[in-house]
Write a structure and sequence with these properties.
By secondary structure, the chain is an alpha+beta fold. It is 24% helix and 14% strand. The chain is globular and about 40 Å long.
Length: 58
């Protein structure tokens, strides 16, 4: 099952460490929610829509 973080544009793969991280500078409470897997109500969620630019050009 995919989490909401998996669909977020801020969820980035770190090739050096070989795992995904949140690209947003989170405060302590937000980092706790992210690490515990409860990121369903994240205020920084941004849909990872790679075709947004293409649709805009049409």
């Amino acid at each position: 099952m995919q989490s909401r973080c998996d669909m977020c544009a801020n969820y980035e793969y770190d090739e050096e460490e070989e795992y995904y991280t949140c690209g947003v500078n989170l405060d302590e409470d937000e980092m706790y929610r992210f690490l515990s897997g409860n990121c369903g109500d994240c205020p920084y969620f941004s849909q990872d829509d790679e075709y947004r630019v293409v649709r805009h050009q049409m």
